[in-house]
Write a structure and sequence with these properties.
rod-shaped; single chain; about 95% helix
Length: about 120
């Protein structure tokens, strides 16, 4: 009876931990995708500015001002990508280690059950 209670409690705890880790990892992944998209859009804007400058629709000083502004955004995006990728990797590592830990506990519970019978 205590074995089944212990197993049930352990399964609830691991299930909650797994959901939480999966949620955080998913959020970090979505954030990474958003940051990469922002960087891609910035690259497109850079190409657009170069085209406008080449065609004379944008002055050099306007282009320089826009370049400064967009560089700041790019640096923020790159930083966000780096942090998000790091958190995503940590999340997946955490999930993997939790899975190994859960398997050990399940194996131990099975072993104890076989010994008692």
């Amino acid at each position: 009876d205590s074995d089944s209670e212990l197993r049930s409690q352990h399964e609830q705890e691991t299930s909650a931990a797994r959901r939480k880790t999966l949620l955080y990892t998913g959020l970090a992944t979505v954030t990474s995708i958003g940051a990469v998209n922002g960087l891609y859009q910035s690259t497109k804007a850079h190409q657009q500015r170069k085209r406008l400058l080449r065609e004379g629709e944008l002055s050099k000083s306007e282009a320089a001002d826009l370049k400064k502004e967009h560089r700041k955004r790019d640096l923020i995006s790159v930083g966000l990508i780096a942090v998000s990728m790091y958190n995503t990797r940590l999340g997946w590592q955490r999930m993997k280690s939790k899975h190994v830990e859960e398997q050990k506990v399940r194996d131990d519970l099975e072993k104890n059950k076989k010994i008692r019978t």
